[in-house]
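Reply to dn_fold:

You asked what the input looked like. This is it:
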Amino acid sequence: FFSSRRRHTRCSGVSWARRCVQETGIELILTSLKDPQAATSSRYALYTLSILDSLWNAILGNRKNEKIFLDNEGLYILLDFLEVCDEIHRKMALSCLCCLVENPKSVPYFCDWNSSRTMINATQPVSYTHLTLPTIYSVQISVVAVSLKK
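and this is what came back:
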């Protein structure tokens, strides 16, 4: 995954990541997010930030990579990660989640997820203290009902 940059020398910055990521790179990101130490260990803080950065730059915004990510239970893994991660990772993981759910194909995955820890699903309200974002601005959160038709 990371060595693909050397093979594609014409790619630069974020664009190389979006064009050059391979399915094995997505699997690497998913495996890393599943690691319990990545979510909670201070020794892995920078590593985990780099994994979230890779998710942001290489997968999100690219529909093909998002599809591979979703098909490999990426949304479930990201939600599980969010449930246990340290505060240092929460903001970036929430940003990734917000970007991912803009993809209409993620809605069924989002509605289907159930926490293995608390047994709530992603559409149920969560405690405000769990998702506190420090800001000087007021924040308004709205909920949109989605109808899924086959």
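The radius of gyration is 16 Å.
Hope that clears it up.
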